[in-house]
Design goal:
Layout: E1 2-4, H1 8-21, E2 27-31, H2 37-47, E3 52-56, H3 67-80, E4 85-90, E5 93-95, H4 100-112, E6 116-120, E7 134-136, E8 141-143, E9 153-156, H5 157-163, H6 171-180, E10 184-187, E11 193-195, E12 202-203, E13 206-207, H7 230-238, H8 247-250, H9 268-280
Parallel strand pairs: 1-2, 1-4, 2-3, 6-10
Antiparallel strand pairs: 4-9, 5-11, 6-9, 7-8, 8-10, 12-13
Length: 310
C-alpha cells in the first residue's frame, strides 16, 4: 500500500519500481484527496492497470493531512480482506532492488517472532545517529531501539487488529502504543527500499516554506535512485550482520550531481539542524560531514564502496 498526495512524479517513480522489483504483489494506492491535475490524471491511468487499485480518501486536515487516518483505513481494509501482512510505503519512496523473495522472507520472520508487530524494510541514513538498531539473535534481524512502529514497512495485520492497535498522529505515538500492547519492532537485515533524494514535503497539505531541490515538477528535476545491481545485492547479503546497511553506501541517485549526504536530507536547513543536535547530544558522527559534488557528469553506475567513508 502506498500513500500519496500531490506528488505525481514521485508516485510514478514508486509504481515503476514496484512493477520492476515486486510485481507479484498487488498494489493499493491511497490518495489523500489530491488536487494536482497531473496527480489526478495518473491516478486515472493507474486505475486502468491490472494489479493496481486506487482509493481516494478524504482525511482530516492534521499536520500530516489525512495520512494516519488513511493508514488506519488501510489496516481495516487489509483485515476485511483477510490479509495477514501489509507493506506500507510513501510516494517519495522507491523499491531499489528485486524484492519479492526478501519481502516474503520478512513476512516469515515477523510471523515467527511472537511479539513482533513491525519490520522496517528501508535503508537507514547516516543522519539517523540516535536511532541505530541493535543486533538481535532472533531470526537474523536488527532490533529497533526507539521507533517500534514507523510510518513505512511490514505490519502484522492480524496481531495489530486483534490487539486493538491503531496508528496515532506520529511515529513516536505508534511506538508508545505498540510497547504498551507488548510489541517490539525490528529492522530487516537486507533493506529493499529507500526514500528518494530531495522530496517535496507538505504540512497541513501545504508545501513547506523551505522547499528542497526536487520541487520543480518536471520529471528531470525529480531525483531518483538507480536500481542496485546483482553484484551489489550479493555483497549486501554477504556482509557481516554487525555492519549496518546505510543508504549512502548502497544507494546512488540516477540523475543528480550531489553525493552523500546531501542526496538524502530534506533541506540544507534540516541537515544543519541535525548536525547541531547530534553534536549537542555528544554523538556527532563523522559520516554526516558532506561530500563534494561529483564530477561533471551525473553518477549513473558508481562502483560500490563497502567501507565507511573517512
Amino acid at each position: 500500500m502506498v500513500f500519496t498526495f500531490n506528488r505525481p512524479n514521485y508516485l510514478k517513480n514508486f509504481v515503476r519500481s514496484h512493477q520492476e522489483c515486486a510485481p507479484e504483489f498487488n498494489l493499493l494506492i491511497i490518495d489523500d484527496a489530491s488536487t494536482d491535475p497531473d496527480q489526478i490524471k495518473i491516478l486515472d491511468d493507474f486505475r486502468k492497470q491490472d494489479g493496481i487499485e486506487v482509493m481516494t480518501a478524504y482525511g482530516a486536515s492534521h499536520r500530516h493531512g489525512g495520512l494516519y487516518q488513511n493508514m488506519n483505513e488501510a489496516l481495516a481494509i487489509a483485515g476485511r480482506r483477510g490479509y495477514q501482512f501489509m507493506n506500507l510505503f510513501q510516494d517519495d519512496m522507491q523499491i531499489v532492488r528485486p524484492a519479492t523473495d526478501d519481502i516474503l522472507k520478512a513476512c516469515g520472520i515477523l510471523d515467527m517472532i511472537k511479539h513482533g508487530l513491525h519490520i522496517n524494510l528501508t535503508f537507514r541514513k547516516y543522519l539517523d545517529v540516535k536511532n541505530e538498531p541493535k543486533i538481535c539473535d532472533v531470526a537474523n534481524v536488527y532490533r529497533s531501539q526507539n521507533l517500534q512502529v514507523s510510518d513505512t514497512g511490514l505490519i502484522h495485520v492480524k496481531r495489530a487488529i486483534s490487539s486493538g492497535f491503531i496508528f496515532q498522529e506520529s511515529e513516536r505515538a505508534h511506538s508508545a502504543l505498540a510497547v504498551q500492547l507488548g510489541f517490539k519492532g525490528y529492522v530487516f537485515r537486507d533493506p529493499v527500499c529507500a526514500f528518494v533524494p530531495w522530496p517535496i514535503f507538505y504540512r497541513n497539505k501545504k508545501k513547506t516554506k523551505i522547499a528542497p531541490l526536487g520541487t520543480i515538477r518536471k520529471t528531470s528535476n525529480v531525483k531518483f535512485i538507480r536500481t542496485i545491481s546483482p553484484d551489489e545485492i550479493i555483497s549486501l547479503k554477504a556482509r557481516d550482520i554487525k555492519t549496518l546497511p546505510y543508504m549512502e553506501e548502497w544507494c546512488r541517485p540516477a540523475n543528480s550531481y550531489w553525493l552523500a549526504p546531501y542526496n538524502y536530507t530534506n533541506s540544507l536547513r534540516d541537515w544543519g539542524k541535525r548536525i547541531v543536535r547530534s553534536a549537542m547530544d555528544g554523538k556527532l558522527n563523522w559520516r554526516i560531514i558532506p561530500h563534494l559534488i561529483s564530477p561533471s557528469t551525473p553518477v549513473q553506475t558508481p562502483k560500490l564502496e563497502l567501507k565507511r567513508h573517512d
